Sequence to fold (391 residues):
Amino acid sequence: MNVRRSAAVLAAAVAIGTATPAVAASPSPSPSLPSGLYGSSDPTYDGVWRQSLALIALYRAHAEPAAEAVDWLAGQQCESGAFPAFRANPAKACDAKLMVDTNSTAAAAQALSAVGGHGTAVTKAVTWLKSVQNKDGGWGYTPGGASDANSTSVVIGALTTQHTRVSTIRNGAKSPYDALLKLSLPCADGGAFAYQPDKKGKLTANADATAAAVVAARGTSLLTARADTRGESTCADAPHLTPARAAANGASFLAKAVAKGGYLKSVLPGAEDQPDYGNTADAVVALAAQGGTAAATGPLRWLEQNSAKWAEQNGPAAYAQLILAAEAGGADPSDFGGTDLVEQLTATGPAPVTASQDDSDTSVWWMVGAGLAAGAGVGFLLSSRNKRKQP
Fold:
């Protein structure tokens, strides 16, 4: 997924052509990184994305993030409802020089939906996404860019936060599923999904796009994808391809891709024949969502044995991906190959409120309340206690 983000930003820069200087003109991060942000690397191109993944992963692991982290993400939203990859000065209104994108917006919508209390922000984000839907029913990385499987899939995830049938979200006659199915290859070519057609309209299998599309075609998201044994993972061509059939075909492709070594290989041009940890984690989620924990056992075990160094080097987004894979695949994210992924993730950002801190605060307030009660009566004490329980 980190690889896809880099590729998507590059593709966006190429796609918008003369508008490319607008990317360079976007505000640069300050020398000291925002205190609410997860990770210590330059957030210019992935700040919102990695923050969103972190919050979603903590939600899936039943861990409460620091309010500071949530506030940082919420503060990145533009008045239009869209999110940029990173907004260095949230106090300054978004302008035409700040490039917003569908991936950051869709991920942020899911994250804010997960933490709760940001319904208006989520609705605004989804409304903006609907406003930039392409005529084929899908989305590209940038508004108006050619639809691709990854962007369309992450937007489908955001649409599900509104409890509306994705098939009813249309630009004219086309829904998001129409765009995805156009990128599905026949079984003779593996049944995978392509990222986009090439200049000649040819589709080429892409494992990362396939993992994302399998989850989306099932009508699920990063928030809701869980092991499901009801789906099959065999490939079969059909006269009228459905999202369910395309998801099964895609899962079949992924299962074969990880069967030998337990991992997906890097597909970056010029890259050595090496594992792609992030895409393998995404594949685990897709395989589990389609065929249950048994379908994801191989790559999940491989990640448990081999991903620690990769996650340490790549920070919060990597830890988040592994947590999502563990949660979907039936593993324990607090003991993943001997590593507590939740602890490692939270260590990259603002400290969450712990139980001990809660107890300490409560004790202090009880003492204050008792003193006040002596002079003002029991009614005031009860009122103070009720106020303290409010978020």
Observations:
- The chain has a mean pLDDT of 86.
- Residues 355-376 form the longest helix (22 residues).
- The longest strand covers residues 83-84.
- The chain has 17 helices and two strands.
